[in-house]
Every structure is written in C-alpha cells, then in structure tokens.
Amino acid sequence: xxxxxxxxxxxxxxxxxxxxxxxxxxxxxxxxxxxxxxxxxxxxxxxxxxxxxxxxxxxxxxxxxxxxxxxxxxxxxxxxxxxxxxxxxxxxxxxxxxxxxxxxxxxxxxxxxxxxxxxxxxxxxxxxxxxxxxxxxxxxxxxxxxxxxxxxxxxxxxxxxxxxxxxxxxxxxxxxxxxxxxxxxxxxxxxxxxxxxxxxxxxxxxxxxxxxxxxxxxxxxxxxxxxxxxxxxxxxxxxxxxxxxxxxxxxxxxxxxxxxxxxxxxxxxxxxxxxxxxxxxxxxxxxxxxxxxxxxx
Length: 297
Ligand SMILES: [Zn+2]
Ligand SMILES: [Zn+2]
Fold this sequence. Notes:
By secondary structure, the chain is mostly helical. It contains 16 helices and no strands. The site of one zinc ion has 5 residues, from α10.
C-alpha cells in the first residue's frame, strides 16, 4: 500500500508539520476572533506551555526512542494483538484501531481524574488560567510517560497496523489542539461537528472550576464516548463567557503558569477535591450527618 508506506517513512516530518501547521492556524484564529478575553499575557503562557511540550518531547524521545510506532512494528512482527490475527483490509483495521485507541485514551483520561495520585499529575493540564491551543499540549512529564506505557499496553492488545498508530497520533494531537482553541464555531456548525468530534465549546466545559463540569466531557477526539458512557455535558452552567477556567484551589498565576510551578505542582500538599477520594469523604460525612440527624430526631 503506497499511502501507508508514505506515512510510515515520513512519520516524524508529517507529525511535526501537522503540529506547527495547526498551532499556526489556531493561533491566528484565536488572535483574530478570540472566544474569551485572556487573563494572563499570551506570550508568558505560550512560552511556558510550549516549553513544557519541548521538555516532554525530549524526555519521550530519550526514554522511548522507538516510540509508539516502534512498538506497533514489534507487535506486528510477533503477531501480537487482536488485529494482527484477523484477515481484514488495511483500511478497515486502520479505522478499527484508531477508534479503539481513542477509547483507551478516553478511559485513561477518566482514570487520571478518578485516582488521587493521577489527578495530582493531571491537574497541571487543568490549572491553566486561560484556555487556548497551547493548553491542549500542556501535560506534566510523568503523565506523558504513564500515557506512553498505557499506549504500549493498548498496542500489544489491539495489534494495530503501524500506519494506524501514526495516523492516530496525528489525529489525537490535531483534535486536542483544535478543541482547546480559544475560538467559537457558529452553533449550527458546532452541533454538526459534535455528533462525531469534540468541539472547543464541548471540551471547554471540562476545564471549568466547577467539579461536576470538570468531571465530564473526557473525550479528546471522538465525542461518542462521553455520550455512550454518560459523562457528556452539553454546555457550562454559567455559559462560555462567564464560566471560570482552571482549578478552584490553585489560582496563583506564578504557580500555575511558569514551568517551575507546573513541574512541582503534583508534589504540593493541596490537590483540591476533584478526585474520587474526596467524593468518598464527602459521602461518609453526609452519611454521618444523616445518621446523626436521624438519631436526634
Ligand atoms: Zn482532564
Ligand atoms: Zn483539556
């Protein structure tokens, strides 16, 4: 297959071109028609958010030189995984693999919210006081490394064609940069795109300081998972202009904007009450209150 060979042989160039191309398009769109007025100077945020991306990329290349693509090659050579053991046209296995890998990313995102230790890392993505294309690339290096292990496990279970892994990385990156854009689509267009893909208005809800809103809309590319698993929330309660972006317990611009603050954030004592552990405490407190009120009545 010519198209698959072309993509595989020029993986790094294609991925970097898409990253820079989408960054430029979204950056220009945000400059010309921003959906919300930024709270922090754009240059400072971009310098730090993109600095973190560079750090993440260097770390990944150092720890996993073969990257996800290399793992897909090994899985194929060893006939490991579901799709390496079925007879289907390449186009079909590629599509199935992309959809399944997207499901894995959705489930991984839910876990990063649910488990307290993982939320410590993932809060770095949420603590951004503004929401734009660079927020979509802002992740703590340890979250990036854990994601790589999850992806590796998924590749050996699914057995995707090599080209599917490359296309998936491009699609995921492109979608994340698009749906973190500080832009607004006309409502009718948002509605059509949202049937399949996550739009900026849909994912912005996920960056609300309101806990229930932050714990919804976990999808990065396909919007179907949130609708299927009951985590979908159409719009923020306060509307897109008035909703507050970030996490309620970390609002100091210095601590949530500069790389030094972002790298140390998971190790600070306060991780807020967004994860599952706190919801358990709240439940037991309310149960206790109920018992006490029953006892006194
Ligand atoms: Zn999240
Ligand atoms: Zn996000």
